[in-house]
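Researcher: Quick test of sequence recovery. Tokens follow.
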């Protein structure tokens, strides 16, 4: 008996990749030694502030997905990834009970302390391995505990699972995204039943767990008609947390690497075979999320390019290239802020808030746009340095290189500063890592590629990568780190 035959023809895959500010449908074409990605359609993701609070415009996002599939043309499969933690509630008929709440909504303020009164923070971390973030799904569900919507809900679907349900009519809960809810045990890859029971969270709301590569149904006839596609078109479960897909697309040559998935957030960490559930890990606010093939994404969330995005918005979106060129001429490490500070989580007045933080810590206050931009990039590089160093120590997993993937891979100044701060080479690229990881999981499910090593070898051969060697010593970065409050 022979094994399955490796698919050799070029196949096309639609990767729906939804970010906090925009969504897009990318088409990946995969052959025996080729991997090409093109954008079929991009659409805005504009949250709406209603009298009830901040909400996602999920219907607009779904319309964007349909428009993107129409623009994509023939594809052999579809996969969806998005941001984490947020969800939609469905009634007994499968109808959506209102627009999903945005993770930046204020409803979870003060909820963590109530949760810890029932399940102390140390116990919660030991059971779920998840870092504290005020918007984790667990806190959202506790905050919604007495709401009419939750009382009438018969099904809870995380954002990519909700869109998959609308495309196929089949409900599932993808594991890499479920691991961000703070309701999964990272050792077993199953629900943390004890935590849920103690907090009164009904796990029956969740659809059965799926893993990357599992089938998720076929596009419904109505979707085929809407998009002009000819069926059957399967939907494949991918690493539906965009960071899981991005880490799958890190073009590493061995396991001794750190990664930084950059975008609105910077997710900085390691790929491990087992979670790190120590008290020291909890105190350092590292998280254990699940990745492809049972791996653990051991990482810390840092505010990321959100800081710069908010400044650009307030400044009327000036030319980014010119701004970065001006920032490169500003003296290094003149002022830095803690890029992980929850003070910067909410939108609005970002330049003023950065200036206030510098003033409060006794540092020179950046005044010009270039100075504020340099402060942000120095601060991000400093946060990357701390996270890479601490992850190695806590996991006893030394690294020889840092891979920067996602949108920040295009920011040469940030990449160079990160190499200098970490004292390690930085390999930047691919910038479209989440979409590429999405495509590669679909291709693997279709028999076109093998394990993660083979996937990464294909990426290294086909994608444009830039290497930055560290310059100078890390002494100035160590001194700057000591200036931050609480360091």
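Model:
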């Amino acid at each position: 008996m022979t094994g399955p035959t490796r698919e050799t023809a070029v196949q096309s895959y639609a990767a729906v990749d939804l970010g906090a500010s925009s969504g897009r449908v990318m088409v990946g074409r995969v052959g025996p030694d080729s991997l090409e990605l093109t954008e079929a359609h991009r659409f805005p993701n504009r949250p709406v502030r209603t009298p009830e609070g901040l909400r996602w415009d999920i219907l607009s996002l779904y319309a964007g997905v349909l428009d993107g599939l129409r623009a994509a043309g023939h594809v052999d499969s579809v996969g969806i990834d998005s941001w984490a933690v947020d969800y939609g509630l469905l009634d007994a008929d499968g109808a959506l009970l209102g627009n999903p709440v945005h993770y930046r909504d204020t409803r979870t303020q003060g909820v963590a302390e109530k949760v810890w009164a029932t399940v102390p923070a140390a116990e919660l971390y030991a059971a779920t391995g998840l870092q504290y973030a005020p918007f984790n799904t667990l806190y959202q569900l506790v905050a919604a505990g007495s709401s009419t919507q939750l009382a009438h809900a018969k099904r809870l679907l995380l954002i990519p699972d909700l869109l998959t349900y609308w495309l196929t009519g089949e409900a599932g809960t993808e594991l890499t995204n479920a691991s961000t809810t703070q309701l999964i045990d990272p050792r077993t890859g199953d629900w943390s039943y004890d935590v849920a029971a103690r907090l009164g969270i009904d796990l029956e709301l969740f659809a059965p767990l799926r893993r990357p590569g599992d089938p998720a149904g076929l596009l419904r006839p109505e979707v085929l008609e809407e998009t002009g596609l000819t069926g059957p078109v399967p939907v494949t479960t991918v690493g539906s947390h965009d960071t899981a897909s991005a880490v799958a697309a890190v073009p590493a040559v061995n396991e001794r690497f750190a990664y930084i998935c950059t975008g609105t957030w910077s997710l900085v960490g390691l790929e491990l075979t087992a979670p790190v559930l120590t008290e020291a890990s909890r105190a350092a606010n590292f998280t254990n999320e699940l990745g492809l093939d049972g791996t653990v994404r051991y990482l810390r969330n840092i505010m990321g390019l959100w800081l710069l995005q908010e400044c650009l918005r307030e400044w009327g979106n000036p030319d980014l290239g010119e701004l970065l060129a001006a920032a490169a001429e500003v003296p290094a490490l003149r002022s830095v802020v803690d890029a992980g500070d929850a003070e910067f989580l909410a939108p609005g007045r970002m330049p003023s808030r950065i200036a206030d933080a510098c003033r409060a810590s006794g540092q020179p206050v950046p005044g010009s746009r270039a100075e504020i931009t340099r402060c942000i990039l120095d601060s991000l590089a400093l946060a990357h340095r701390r996270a890479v160093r601490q992850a190695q120590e806590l996991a006893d997993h030394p690294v020889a290189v840092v891979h920067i993937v996602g949108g920040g891979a295009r920011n040469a100044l940030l990449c160079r500063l990160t190499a200098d701060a970490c004292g390690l080479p930085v390999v930047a690229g691919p910038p479209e890592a989440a979409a590429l990881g999405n495509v590669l999981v679909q291709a693997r499910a279709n028999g076109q590629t093998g394990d993660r090593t083979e996937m990464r070898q294909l990426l290294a051969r086909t994608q444009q990568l830039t290497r930055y060697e560290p310059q100078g010593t890390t002494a100035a970065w160590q001194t700057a780190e000591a200036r931050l409050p609480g360091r």
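The first strand starts at residue 11 and ends at 18.
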